[in-house]
Amino acid sequence: MQAFLDQLWIARWPLWDGLQLTVGISAGAILFGTLLGLLVGIQLAYAPWWLRLPFRLYVDIMRGTPVLVLILAAFYIPSVVGLSLGPTEAGTLALTLFAGAHIGELLRGSLQAIPPGQAEAGRSIGLTFPQLLAYVLLPQAARSALPPWINTGVELIKGSSLLSIIGVGELLLRTQEVIGRTFMTIQFYVFAGIVYLVEKRQPLLAIRGLTKQFGATEVLKGVDLSLDQGDVVSIIGSSGSGKTTLLRCVNLLEEYQGGDIVLDGETIGYRATNGRRHRLGDRELSRQRAMTGMVFQSFNLFPHLSAAGNVMLGLRKVLRLPKAEARAIAEKWLARVGLAARADHYPSQLSGGQQQRVAIARALAMNPKLVLLDEVTSALDPELVQEVLNTVKGIAEDGATLLIVTHEMRFARDVSDRVVFMEQGRIHEEGPAAEIFGNPKSARLAEFLRNTRH
Amino acid sequence: MEYSLHFGAVWASFDRLLSGLAIGLALAVVAVAIGTLLGLLAAFAAVSPYRPLRSLAGLYVSLIRNLPLLVLVLLAYFALPQVGIALDKYQSFAGALALYSGAYLTEVFRAGLVSVPKGVIEAARSIGLTKLQTNVSVVAPIMLRNALPSLGNTFIGMFKDSSIAAAIAVPELTFEARKINVDTFRVIETWMVASGLYIAACVVIAALLRGLERRFPKF
Question: Closest Cα to residue B20, out of B175, B157, B204?
Answer without folding.
Answer: B175
